Amino acid sequence: MDEIKPLLANRHATYKSRWFMLSVVMIFNISNAMIWISYASIANIASAYYDVSEDRINWFSLVFFFFSVICGLPAFWLIDTYGLRIGMLTGTWINAFGCITRLLASFLLHQRYIFWMALVGQAISACSQPIILAIPTKLAALWFADNERTVANTLASLANPLGVLIASAFSPIIVKEATDMKLMLMIFSVPSVLGALMTTFGVCSDAPPTPPSASAHLISEPFLKGVKMALKSRSFILLMFVFGFGVALFSTITSLLEQIICPRGYDNDIAGLCGALVIVGGLLFSGIAGVYVDKTKRFEETAKVFMLLAAIMSCLVLVSTSLFNQTTLLCIVFFLFGATCLGVAPICLELGVECTYPVDEATSAGLQWMFGQFIGVFLMLGLPELGTKLTPEEQQHSVCNIPGSHNNLDSKDLTNALISVTVVLTVIVLIFVIGFKAEYKRLYAEIEAKTSKILYRESPDDQEVTDFPTA
After folding, report:
1. Quick one: which of 62, 67, 179, 236 has the fewest CB in 10 Å?
2. Tens digit of pLDDT for each residue in 251-297?
């Protein structure tokens, strides 16, 4: 490798180590999402286990929204000021500590207190969420070439919904009755500990010795100045608003899925299947969209098409969840809902970087996620309040309550709540499609740098390096 070193100063190089970095971020993301959504598809059984109402089980999701907003700016400052490695170390260990706290509650405390300690553990893990949501765009910018960034960002960002898929699919399989909750908590703790250990012993630097692209050479704006620059961009504000509301709606529907469909006779297994199909659709279509955008750089056009389709799919979700005995239709609709809503997420994050460059990538992505969590707090609190009493037909079909549990409450029909948020989403999407105009600041900066050859010497044979150059 010594003979490569003198050449690297004027070339862009990629390292195979970037794939390890990506795998660590993905495991961190998967774990955090599994913790967040653990109870969504088994809310009725969790209610019986913790001896609380289902409204309180919703707190496990609500604290993620709440603490993500509170910890958002400090998390972005940490990554921007101290770098990727410190951010990853801090995030993975906070995440693991919260998950272990939640597990220990079931083994160490009296039944009366385990809910509250588990909620504390959930809140601790929630504090790490803004870190992991902000990291993918920065990782892609620092470690991946310009024709790999969207794909890398897609893989890292969609590890979060992959965690939702795992939790949604396996929670109902593992937990058939309240006594199975301990086993689920033990299994779901493994990825969090693994991610922390991989980061501690495997992540040794913030960035590779040689930048992978022209923009990776440059130092981003200081944190506070970067935040101000981002919030002064009209295009970024509009993007942040539509992305945030879409994320909030998706997260809320995912969290309340079992409660939305159980009045129509769909049990926990169907809720878990629908939650899994949402993620499968998102993973499939986001991968296709990521490759397409990396090759064509058509961020704006792709984002607008996906946004329109997402609004249409949200309407279909509203219709399908109001029907009885339509399991196949329900599964198809949720698959397409995930394909459009999740498919557009990595593209929006990359588009946000383009609009705000040279603002730090973690800051622009983090602001979008934080706004989504902020809106999510209101949706998580508001949607159940907009619910109505079940009709006699719905009461006849409902499978919401566990027989014999004294915590069973009157379940609610959330159709009116879904109508309200679907209308709002549709209006916001239309405003975005009509009013948004992309600013490809990072892309133009890279083109100018390569063309002028003032800052960088053009290197047609940029290469992948197996390992870091040796001294």
Report:
1. 179
2. 888 777 877 888 887 877 888 788 788 888 888 888 788 788 878 88
CA angle 382, 388, 428 (to 5 degrees): 45
Inter-axis angle of helices 17-37 and 149-157, nearest 10: 30
Candidates 44, 61, 38; CA nearest to 182 is 38
For residues 29 and 186, the answer to whether their CB atoms sit within 8 Å is no
Q: Which two tokens stand for residue 424?
A: 């709002």
The three-point CA angle 417-418-422 to 5° equals: 125
What does the alpha-carbon distance between residue 445 and residue 353 come to, in Å, rounded to a whole number? 12
Q: pTM above the 0.85 mark?
A: no
b/e map 204-217, b = 16+ CB within 10 Å: eebbbebbbbbbbe
Identify the pLDDT of residue 216.
Answer: 64
- Render pLDDT for 199-241 as a digit per residue (tens, 0 to 9): 999 998 888 888 887 666 666 667 788 888 888 888 999 999 9
- Per-residue model confidence as pLDDT tens digits over 396-413: 767 676 554 444 445 677
Specify whether the backbone of 298 is left (phi greater than 0), alpha (psi in -120 to 50) or beta. beta
DSSP-derived pairing of the beta strands 463-465 and 412-413: unpaired
CA distance 78 to 61: 24
Encoded tokens for 390: 């079940």
Among 81, 48, 43, 49, CA closest to 62: 43
For the beta carbon of residue 113, count every other beta carbon within 10 angstroms.
Answer: 11
Place of tokens 């009045």: 263
HEC readout, 122-154 = HHHHHCCHHHHHHHHHHHHHHHCCCCCHHHHHH
Per-residue pLDDT at 100:
95
Predicted local confidence at residue 450, as pLDDT: 66
> If 0-12 CB within 10 Å is exposed, 13-18 middle and 19+ buried, where does residue 177 land?
exposed
